[in-house]
């Protein structure tokens, strides 16, 4: 006779926890990526989708016939098992939809910009804090391995200035101008690289394609310590560029998101002021400081390939399931909205510098 010894009963923590139930609200061009990713990730399942345009839902349901699809936000918030909501509607609708999701007790990932005015952005942060819910803002570039590599490289540098270009032919939005559509990416990257919020903004723009809103905007931002940032965005430029450049005392670093082979290029060249005591006596000029030129190599560091949006979704799930604060939390989202609001006011004033509300840290 075989004696079967009783197996120890597994503790609850030994069982894999069930996947996080996800609802995606807004199933247009960008929302489709979230539906794909949250279905691919092991720790989540898309249970429901919502879009006020039924034809957008039809495309999702064709691929995922078991998903609940509705045009009604309240209905999707009541679907059993939905723990977290992804808000991918047009920007001017983010606040209303995200607020309703938070008030229904859901963790929220909301696309950038968090909202289109500071008061409502702050209100979302307050609701998420009060109910202890995760609020992640879709500043996707903070999850880009290239941008993270740039931050690592400039850690000990004295940054002089940064500039970014984000131009292409459209896609043209009908609820916000090109600045609100594109510049939040660069404002979030600058804030992340400098660990600071802009103190002032100055912006001029042109309404080339319609009289309703600017489709090309040139923005200058002033950061603590006199660091300058410049951003050029356009929906009317046939040359597609997605580039950020950092110039520091030690080097010039180019992040080119459209170059998969050399996403980051480092020019180990720079100029800095050094005290005269540190300069070789033969090279000394008059005065107590001297400009020291540095001429080194051009390097393309290996950047491990990873999909930034997948990294962002993974971090959101980690915070929902295990706790913690996302890299692009609500506070960072508010900081970007404050800066964009100052950009808007400066545009209306023909480029006059406008103070950015709030503190200087992100
Ligand atoms: N992080 C990034 O790199 C990135 C890239 C592209 C777009 N985005 C952001 O994603 C958002 C969506 O952009 P898109 O290109 O997919 O736009 P889109 O116009 O293609 O899709 C938006 C969808 O939201 C739906 N919608 C609007 N209000 C709604 C509401 N109240 N309830 C339900 N559905 C509603 C619309 O019907 C539409 O189908 C924008 O905020 C945009 O800034 C971010």
- Bound molecule kinds, no repeats: nicotinamide-adenine-dinucleotide
Q: Assign the CATH architecture of the largest domain.
A: 2-Layer Sandwich
Q: What is the element string, with H for helices and E for strands?
A: EHEHEHEHEHEHEHEEEEEEEHHE
Low-confidence segments, given as residue ranges, are: 1-12
Strand order of the largest sheet: 14-13-12-11-7-10-9-8-15
Strand content bin: 25-35%
**Largest beta sheet, briefly?**
9 strands, mixed
Number of domains: 2
Kindly provide the name of the CATH class of the largest domain. Answer: Alpha Beta
Which fold does the CATH topology of the largest domain refer to? Dihydrodipicolinate Reductase, domain 2
Rounded radius of gyration (Å): 24 Å
Describe this structure in words.
The protein folds into 2 domains: 18-141 and 312-329, NAD(P)-binding Rossmann-like Domain (Rossmann fold), CATH 3.40.50; 144-304 and 336-355, Dihydrodipicolinate Reductase, domain 2, CATH 3.30.360. Strands 14-13-12-11-7-10-9-8-15 form a 9-stranded mixed sheet. Helix 4 packs parallel to helix 5 and helix 5 packs antiparallel against helix 9 (330-348). The chain has helices at residues 31-40, 54-63, 73-77, 94-103, 118-130, 145-154, 178-194, 308-322, 330-348, and strands at residues 20-25, 44-50, 68-70, 84-87, 107-111, 135-138, 159-169, 200-206, 216-222, 228-234, 236-248, 252-256, 264-275, 289-299, 354-355. The chain is built from 9 helices and 15 strands. It is α/β, with parallel strands linked by helices and 362 residues long. Nicotinamide-adenine-dinucleotide binds at residues 25-31, 50-53, 56, 73, 88-91, 93, 97, 111-112, 138, 140.
